[in-house]
Amino acid sequence: MRDNTARKEEYFYSYDNENITNKNNVVNKSQKQKNNFVAVLFFSILISLVSCIYVNLIMKEIEAGKQLYKLKIEKKNLIKNISLLQSKIDGKMDLNKIRKIAEKELGMEIYNQIQYLAVK
Length: 120
Prior knowledge:
By secondary structure, this protein is an all-alpha fold.
């Protein structure tokens, strides 16, 4: 009788050990799934940050290109205005005459730029 009781107890202990092992396996799997989820979340956030920075750099480069284009157009207009002034002066470089024409035709800012270029 004791052997049967001992066998039953041994069976229940082994059954409990299997249950504990199965529970540990389930816990380990869920922990791995959590770790995988955290890793995927981290990398997706990292990728989104890198892409935001890259897009921001591209936008700044586009803005710089637009400003460069505007400066080139202003330079062409300034050269055109200088040639217009030179043709009106009839080849004389009298600064007072240039000042009057520049104030009248182009505005004081352009006159200052022309004076700077004339000194160079």
